[in-house]
Amino acid sequence: MRGRGGDNTAMAHVIPPIRALLVDWAGTILDHGSRAPARVFVEVFAAAGVPIDEAEARGPMGMAKHDHIAAILALPRVAAAWAARHGTTPGPADATALYERFLPLQKRVLAEHCDPIPGAAAALAFCRQHGIAVGSTTGYTRDLMSLVLPVAATAGIAPDVVVCSDEVPAGRPAPWSNVRAAERLGVFPPAAILVVDDTAAGVAAGRNAGMRTLGVTLTGNGLGLSAAEVAALDPADLARRGAAVARTLLDAGADDCVTGIGAVPEWLRRHGLLG
Predict the structure, then answer these.
(1) Does residue 123 have a pLDDT over 90?
(2) 102-116, 199-213, 238-252, 258-272: lowest mean pLDDT where?
(3) Tens digit of pLDDT for each residue in 75-86?
(4) Would you place residue 61 in the very low, low, confident or very high pLDDT band (cuts 50, 70, 90)?
(5) Mean pLDDT of the chain
(6) Is 256 a catalytic residue?
(7) Which CATH superfamily is domain 36-112 in?
(8) Active-site residue, 65 included
(9) Which listed CATH number (3.40.50.1000, 3.60.21.10, 3.40.50.150, 1.10.4160.10) goes with 8-34+114-270?
């Protein structure tokens, strides 16, 4: 898929080979469709008497979860519904209260959504075989990731660095999680690092860090479907939906898009980015 510059092959010749890969988690390397967080956001708002639909839940995906909740509360329809239900416009205290309800629900749901995305383990192994360090960032907190990491490791998914949303001054689209991951991996310059993410916020964070970015179209938040649901779609419908997701990610600053993490090795080969 062609990126922002038009000729990606030409762009590949003016940057150094990729020396580090920074991947997102939900929707990029596990939890096909990024279903765990979307489900919990819907449940939390319903319990507060202000139902939201899945599109509203998914809109800010990729941000730190407290920021994500605040962004949903700021949506005009949701803010009006909150005021009608609770008598006041939602504010920071409401976002914090919802976040405190979110965390235990998310913990309960996470174990059901740790399945690796097809091709993820092989893609990470390929990068290591070619001297590319493997790191990761996530909108989950360290406490939440403590549940995910052991399960993912049994499936061969174990990045050398994991930077969580509560370990940096600000979450996505701020660049700090990517900067912290690069620091911990000891890799620079930013142009030698590839960020792979399925959300607009994650793509923007990569660009804000000055790093090469790839958007993921079919396995993440934009499509929001399980692997089985994707396989059941009519090919023409799937192509149309994937193109719409790609437009969103390219508009957010992605250099290019791939269908999923499993396509990254061939993308690196095709653009001459292997050392």
Answers:
(1) yes
(2) 102-116
(3) 999 999 999 999
(4) confident
(5) 92
(6) no
(7) Putative phosphatase; domain 2 (1.10.150.240)
(8) yes
(9) 3.40.50.1000
For 141-167, what is each residue's pLDDT tens digit?
999 999 999 999 999 999 999 999 999
pLDDT at position 12, please? 41
Query: Helices 235-251 and 200-208 meet at what angle, rounded to 10?
Result: 40
Q: Which of 65, 94, 198, 256 is catalytic?
A: 65
Give the pLDDT confidence score for residue 9 in this predicted structure. 42
Q: Where in the chain is the domain with CATH 3.40.50.1000?
A: 8-34+114-270
Q: Provide CATH 1.10.150.240 ranges for the chain.
A: 36-112
